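Appendix B. One record, verbatim.
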Amino acid sequence: MGLKSVRELKPLVHLLIPLCVHWIAEEMTVSVLVDVTTSALCPGHSTCPEAIYLTGLQQTVVGVFKMVVLPLLGQLADEYGRKPLLLVTISTTIPSFALLAWNKSREVVYAYYVLRTISFIISQGSIFCISVAYAADVVDESKRAAVFSWITGLFSASHFLGNVLARFLPENYIFEVSIALLIFCPVYIQLFLVETVRLAPEQEVTSSPLTKVFKVCHDRYKSMKYATTIVTSSPTLKGISLISFFYELGMSGISSVLLYYLKSAFGFNKNQFSEILMVVGIGSIFSQIFVLPLLNPMLGEKVILCVALLSSLAYALLYGFAWASWVPYLSASFGVIYVLVKPSTYAIISKATSSNNQGKAQGFVGGVQAIASLLSPIAMSPLTSWFLSSNAPFNCKGFSIICASLCIVISFYFACLLKQEAPSSNKLENNVENIEAPLLLDG
């Protein structure tokens, strides 16, 4: 089964190469960013409340805009093609990292946060959604779960390679190498990626600028209304939206404060961060590329999703109750299983959606996740700072992570109730306004 799914990746080669390079370039900066921001904002301290609050504020702002931007990008990818949207989204990281390559002063770090926030609004989640829609264009429905697992497996492999580079490259060269890799990605996409959406020819009609603006807004409104109808008319998509919301509410809150928590509680630095991320990367590569394609035909996406959510819960609780410096490594090992949440979610959404609406459905669920990532730092940032400070009401530095695990429990409950159904496109088309759909290229 694994080898067969490899053959299914052949039409995706020119998509996966730049994606992998992009993920490597981004991941290699993650572990060093904590040290860079802490040194710039709180020099001489291992704990930096300002960096934690700025990260939380960044995540909140990103969540506010992603609620609109991510579904919008999914719709635009369906209507105007995958390639131009990928070119835009994959290019946005370059300016923010270029700043840190130039200077790491306090003022430049503030400017980095601004540019990185804009980058996250446009690219975070949308790159994956558009890529999944592209894959759904060229891969048979019965093979999509295996292909999605390969894509997320390559995502984990890229993260692993990024962490290896971060572990062994001198800190002064990390951002320079990252920028070179990031520039390579849009150039490769422009040269080699084949578009899968054929646009219908439009008749030019002379109209005033105001009329054109009104028409664009009206078309966006109709498209967003149509995307909402797609999801609300499907019990499967409604269920997976709830699952994704609560899962993202918990996990995004944990990820936003985790490295700062480990730095404060156990004195971890760039090397330990890289080692922990590498532990997750090694196992998750194997589980997504080999285990999921083998288990999916026997167990189905729902069972795999439930098991992965339970693993996420164990991951969160072990971090929250960590009593020694080796416990985070044990907790990270559960990443081997919890990484299967993403591919199983993508497969469930894809199976419940017709080919013409892949971008809309994936984008809508991505928008739901954006709402969750908006809400989580509102509680996580102040709670984490409080329990890491000397004014904590009791000694439990990971208390905020324990609270976030309750959201994963709720997500698991909805996953147990999930009902999977095939899309009923004909019925849907008769009950909603007719939105012109693009034609997929044959082959």
